[in-house]
């Protein structure tokens, strides 16, 4: 069914014209954005500028989890008492998208948030790119630094980061603690007894016995996924406990440091002793899957972030009991067992100020931070379900009584160790994640995986971060 | 839709053709005006949103530009390209993608054609059946990925639960090195078999009845009829469907992102997923652009070859 | 004419099967075929049914082992959660649905407004290097979204379109225009050019002829094309997740993806959100089911 068509001598704008137009556009735009920019972080004023009386929305960005909602509710309830014209909005993105969402906006030099909540390891990337404000002078004038465990201030604010447990008094600060966090060991009191295992080896043997005694319940549950920093934190934790090191910050060496004897022993423990005690198919588990396993009564001992453990006490999600008390009768929370060292992973995040926010919002952000870090506000934050950072708040009954795992956090603070805090963090953690995940799922041998991590991470560090080539 | 058209008549072409048409030259002129007025907005949009970004990517692919780190972009010639082509990491992803594309497209072609064939032989309820079979294709890859992840969960998933009731063991659908890629293929097949089915159904229905009638008079065997009448007539159409599916499968990203995020290890990382990591984890924009350009080149070259083969097939 | 599902459904009569039935003892074979078809239909539809079932289950039953197929408490709480935030008020999911409606609707309209006239022009006029132009138009759709998103991101950053609905609308329209042109060209080809010629002899301009005579005949085709454009923009994920971030812009697919990766996954809510999200597309698809075949084949199927 074809019909003859009218023929005319017609043409539409030829491709040549189009290409030429595009080329001109290209040239002009590239020229426009190609200008060099200052790579160091802009400085925040030492004192808080005058605040606006007009209505203002102070925006945070975080990933979607209960503390994000708790923060929004808390800030709107309490901060509004001091600043009634301010509304606090905590924007949330999927966890897997968290780094990308913040840094693509940074890349755009336009952010729809004023306070990015950066993971401690993101600071290096943000500072090097000039995305967040240098608040060193502001902190000196407004914050009582003596009130904190120095490592917390260093981890959430300082760059370059100091050695474990210390803070360099002269280093620049870029953030203040918002939410502290670490791993807690979650154990079934009804299955392994009230007393938690004290060493890593003991923990493994208790889990093994529990699994053998209780068919259908696996000995262990922990993060193994290859997204976010899941499997990497797991390996780093075991690595720390068995006396390993992630790198030598002074010489910037990973190869030969990470994969030394202690490192290999840690990987061997993780893959050959711990992994066999986990549920089949748990190789892609992260926070929520571990929680589900615990809530469904499928794990003797589990490891999870403290700030993510609140849901375990919710009877609606749990088969362990119909009330919070009944669940608490079965679940115990303890600080991690130690072995050669007693190191635990540092979690949690700090507050930072976007360099691309309007000045009024930046001033408000600084004011919020000053307000937030006061002793009584920190205690209220603790009572509202947050994890504070000031030592007095950590030891206050408001915090310790708010949740059964809060004591674990207070006990763990002096034991913390963070990852490398360098601009190349996102790639380093991806390399570690995928390789640990491969080892856990039998796609690589433990030795092969660890050596690959060391080699690949070293090449990323050596390549430097100044340019956009490489990166495969 | 009815209110959409007045917008188009605002085009300058209207002015050219507003006067009553006189035969001959002036009508041709107004036709030309119309053609330009009608095609150029669409072409302009494509130039701005497809061609221009692609040219920009082409430019960046020869530099070491990074979207976050700023600073001057320096030309590195074909450095990014040679680095990509020489990288073992890229070869690994290319192999994964190849297995995935071939596996998924083959499976859905066979299945889709079989379903279409069975449906075309029904007399009742064909409309209903077809519509039902189409549902998976209409769902968002996000929904499909999330839900299959839930169903394929080794511990709590319904699939393993059913296997368990049948006395079969648990399968590590998403965490086994081989099974994860197979799961990816299965889920993609589930979603896109309807597409092949729909096209095959169109082809099957278009087979002229008299051919079958002639064959049945000749007492030709069923298989003979299928092989000599049905298949040759449906084949070209099926090949087009295969082309579309292969292109789509080649650039698969969202399903991987949601279902396995490339795991275990990197065993389900496709080329697209790898580009994403290069582009947004390391912000190695130059490399990522070159990587992308190479992928586009592969698609265009293979498509051209395939279409040429298809045309040749038609002529024979 | 373009083949439609209904035609596919009705053209081949039963008598076609009679000789077969005679030779192969057809009944047994027919039963086998029906059985096979049923099995395939169950396999293909089971996930959808399971999704609907999960959306009305209590969370405790969702994880039950062995899976509960029938004996569970029915609840509509998840559907409530889709629309109502836990503290009352509108949920972010419902805001995302609304964004999806705006973005998908506007981009589909834009693609149609730009694509239909272009298709008409390509069909009616001898355009220079038409084949090349058409292949070029189609090939812009071959690009992997992850690849395009990088330069688009850089471009949007320059012009301030990042995290705006307009940005999403434009990029979706650009992805849909090639498809619209190809599919609509197939439909326009089927409308005899003589109609317009006759109208022009009556004194109408070419444009009026298109507007009054051709366009009405194209409406069913436009509807079918629009549904495909709608499905694409409604379901799109990659651009949405990389180009948007705020709740007031973000569309539903990234919002649904955001439901996992917190501390507990509320699968009931995920399922309910998925069901609500899938419904509009399924309804639209059902309404234009007659023209779907023409859609997937880009107008390539013609008799």
Automatic annotation (TrEMBL), chain B:
Region annotation (Disordered) maps to 1-27
The residue ranges crossing the membrane are: 34-59, 98-119, 131-151, 192-212, 224-247, 288-307
- Quote the subcellular location field of this record: Cell membrane; Membrane
Q: Where is the composition biased (Polar residues)?
A: 1-17
What topology does it adopt in the membrane?
Multi-pass membrane protein
Question: rRNA processing: present as a keyword of the record?
Answer: no
Has the keyword Thylakoid been applied to this entry?
no
Q: Which UniProt keywords apply?
A: Membrane, Transmembrane, Transmembrane helix, Transport
Q: InterPro entries annotated for this entry?
A: MetI-like, Sugar_ABC_transporter
List each copy of the ABC transmembrane type-1 domain by range: 94-306
Q: What PROSITE patterns does UniProt report for this protein, alphabetically? A: ABC_TM1
Q: Which family does it belong to?
A: Belongs to the binding-protein-dependent transport system permease family.
Please give the name of this protein: Carbohydrate ABC transporter permease
**From which source organism is this entry?**
Nonomuraea harbinensis
Automatic annotation (TrEMBL), chain C:
Membrane-spanning residues where? 31-52, 96-122, 134-156, 168-188, 209-234, 267-288
The subcellular localization recorded is:
Cell membrane
List the source organism. Answer: Nonomuraea harbinensis
Q: Does the keyword Membrane apply?
A: yes
Q: Which InterPro entries match?
A: BP-dep_ABC_trans_perm (IPR050901), MetI-like (IPR000515)
CDD domains assigned to the protein according to its UniProt record, in alphabetical order: TM_PBP2
Q: Which terms are listed as keywords in the entry?
A: Cell membrane, Membrane, Transmembrane, Transmembrane helix, Transport
The name this protein goes by in its record: Carbohydrate ABC transporter permease
One Pfam entry for this protein is: BPD_transp_1
User: Has the keyword Cytoplasm been applied to this entry?
Assistant: no
> Which family is it part of?
Belongs to the binding-protein-dependent transport system permease family.
Q: How does it sit in the membrane?
A: Multi-pass membrane protein
Which PANTHER family does this UniProt record tie to the protein? ABC TRANSPORTER PERMEASE PROTEIN (PTHR32243:SF52), MALTOSE TRANSPORT SYSTEM PERMEASE-RELATED (PTHR32243)
User: What residue stretches are annotated with the ABC transmembrane type-1 domain?
Assistant: 97-288
């Amino acid at each position: 069914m074809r019909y003859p068509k009218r023929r005319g001598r017609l043409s539409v704008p030829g491709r040549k014209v189009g290409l030429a137009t595009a080329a001109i556009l290209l040239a002009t735009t590239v020229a426009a954005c190609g200008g060099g920019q200052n790579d160091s972080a802009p400085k925040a004023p030492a004192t808080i500028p005058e605040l606006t009386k007009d209505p203002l929305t102070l925006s945070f960005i975080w990933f979607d989890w209960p503390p994000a909602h708790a923060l929004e509710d808390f800030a709107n309830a309490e901060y509004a008492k001091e600043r009634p014209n301010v509304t606090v909005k905590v924007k949330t993105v999927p966890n897997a998208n968290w780094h990308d969402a913040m840094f693509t906006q940074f890349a755009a030099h336009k952010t729809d948030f004023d306070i990015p909540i950066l993971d401690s390891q993101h600071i290096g990337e943000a500072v090097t790119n000039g995305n967040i404000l240098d608040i060193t002078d502001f902190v000196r004038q407004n914050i009582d630094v003596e009130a904190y465990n120095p490592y917390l201030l260093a981890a959430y604010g300082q760059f370059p980061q100091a050695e474990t447990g210390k803070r360099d008094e002269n280093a620049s600060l870029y953030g203040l603690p918002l939410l502290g966090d670490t791993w807690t060991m979650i154990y079934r009191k009804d299955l392994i007894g009230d007393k938690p295992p004290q060493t890593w080896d003991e923990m493994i043997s208790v889990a093994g016995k529990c699994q053998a005694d209780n068919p259908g319940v696996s000995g262990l549950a922990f993060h193994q996924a290859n997204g976010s920093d899941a499997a990497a934190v797991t390996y780093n934790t075991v690595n720390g406990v068995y006396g390993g090191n992630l790198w030598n910050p002074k010489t910037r060496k990973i190869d030969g440091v990470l994969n030394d004897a202690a490192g290999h022993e840690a990987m061997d423990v993780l893959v050959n002793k711990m992994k066999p005690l986990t549920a089949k198919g748990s190789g892609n588990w992260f926070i929520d899957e571990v929680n589900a396993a615990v809530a469904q009564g499928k794990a003797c001992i589990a490891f999870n972030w403290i700030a993510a453990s609140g849901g375990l006490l919710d009877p609606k999600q749990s088969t362990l009991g119909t009330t919070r008390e009944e669940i608490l009768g079965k679940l115990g929370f303890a600080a991690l067992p130690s072995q050669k060292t007693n190191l635990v992973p540092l979690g949690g995040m700090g507050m930072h100020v976007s360099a691309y926010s309007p000045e009024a919002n930046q001033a408000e952000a600084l004011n919020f931070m000053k307000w937030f870090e006061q002793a009584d506000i920190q205690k209220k934050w603790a009572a509202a379900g947050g994890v504070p950072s000031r030592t007095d708040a950590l030891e206050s009954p408001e915090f310790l009584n708010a949740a059964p795992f809060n004591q674990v956090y207070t006990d763990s603070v002096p034991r913390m160790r963070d990852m490398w805090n360098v601009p190349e963090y996102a790639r380093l953690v991806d390399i570690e994640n995928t390789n640990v995940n491969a080892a856990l799922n039998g796609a690589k041998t433990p030795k092969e995986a660890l050596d690959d991590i060391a080699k690949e991470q070293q090449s990323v560090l050596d390549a430097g971060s100044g340019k956009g080539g490489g990166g495969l | 839709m009815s209110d959409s058209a007045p917008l188009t008549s605002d085009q300058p072409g209207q002015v050219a053709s507003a006067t009553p048409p006189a035969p001959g030259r002036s009508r041709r002129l107004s036709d030309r005006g119309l053609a330009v007025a009608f095609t150029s907005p669409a072409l302009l949009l494509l130039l701005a949103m497809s061609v221009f970004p692609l040219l920009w990517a082409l430019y960046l692919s020869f530099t070491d530009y990074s979207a976050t780190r700023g600073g001057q972009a320096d030309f590195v010639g074909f450095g990014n390209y040679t680095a990509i082509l020489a990288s073992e990491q890229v070869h690994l992803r290319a192999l994964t993608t190849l297995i995935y594309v071939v596996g998924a497209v083959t499976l859905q072609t066979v299945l889709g054609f079989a379903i279409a064939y069975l449906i075309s032989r029904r007399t009742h309820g064909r409309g209903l059946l077809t519509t039902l079979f189409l549902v998976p294709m209409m769902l968002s890859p996000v929904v499909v990925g999330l839900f299959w992840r839930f169903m394929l969960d080794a511990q709590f998933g319904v699939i393993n639960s059913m296997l368990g009731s049948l006395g079969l063991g648990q399968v590590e659908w998403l965490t086994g090195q081989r099974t994860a890629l197979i799961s990816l293929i299965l889920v993609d097949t589930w979603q896109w078999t309807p597409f092949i089915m729909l096209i095959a159904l169109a082809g099957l229905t278009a087979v002229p009845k008299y051919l079958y009638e002639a064959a049945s008079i000749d007492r030709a065997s069923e298989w003979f009829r299928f092989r000599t009448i049905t298949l040759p007539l449906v084949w070209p159409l099926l090949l087009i469907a295969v082309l579309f599916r292969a292109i789509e499968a080649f650039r698969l990203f969202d399903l991987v992102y949601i279902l396995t995020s490339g795991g275990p290890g990197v065993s389900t990382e496709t080329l697209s997923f790898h580009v994403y990591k290069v582009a947004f984890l390391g912000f190695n924009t130059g490399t990522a652009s070159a990587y992308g350009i190479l992928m586009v080149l592969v698609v265009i070259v293979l498509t051209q070859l395939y279409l040429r083969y298809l045309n040749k097939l038609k002529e024979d | 004419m373009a083949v439609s599902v209904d035609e596919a459904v009705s053209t081949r009569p039963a008598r076609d099967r009679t000789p077969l039935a005679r030779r192969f003892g057809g009944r047994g074979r027919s039963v086998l075929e029906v059985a096979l078809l049923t099995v395939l239909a169950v396999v293909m539809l089971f996930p959808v049914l399971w999704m609907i079932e999960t959306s009305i289950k209590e969370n405790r039953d969702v994880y039950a082992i062995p899976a509960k197929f029938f004996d569970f408490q029915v609840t509509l709480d998840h559907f409530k959660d889709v629309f109502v935030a836990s503290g009352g008020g509108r949920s972010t999911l419902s805001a995302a649905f609304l964004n999806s409606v705006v973005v998908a609707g506007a981009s589909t309209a834009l693609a149609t407004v730009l694509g239909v006239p272009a298709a008409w022009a390509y069909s009616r006029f001898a355009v220079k290097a038409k084949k090349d132009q058409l292949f070029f138009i189609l090939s812009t759709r071959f690009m992997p979204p992850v690849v395009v998103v990088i330069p688009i991101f850089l471009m949007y950053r320059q012009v301030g379109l990042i995290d705006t609905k307009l940005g999403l609308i434009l990029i979706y329209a650009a992805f849909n225009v090639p498809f619209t042109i190809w599919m609509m060209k197939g439909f326009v080809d089927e409308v005899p050019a003589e109609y317009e010629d006759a109208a022009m002899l009556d004194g109408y301009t070419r444009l009026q002829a298109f507007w009054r005579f051709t366009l009405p005949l194209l409406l069913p085709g436009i509807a079918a094309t629009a549904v495909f454009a709608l499905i694409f923009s409604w379901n799109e994920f990659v651009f949405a997740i990389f180009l948007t971030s705020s709740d007031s812009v973000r569309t539903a697919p990234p919002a649904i993806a955001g439901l996992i990766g917190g501390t507990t996954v509320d699968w009931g809510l995920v399922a309910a959100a998925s069901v609500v999200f899938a419904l509009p597309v399924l309804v639209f698809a059902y309404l234009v089911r007659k023209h779907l075949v023409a859609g997937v084949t880009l107008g390539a199927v013609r008799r």
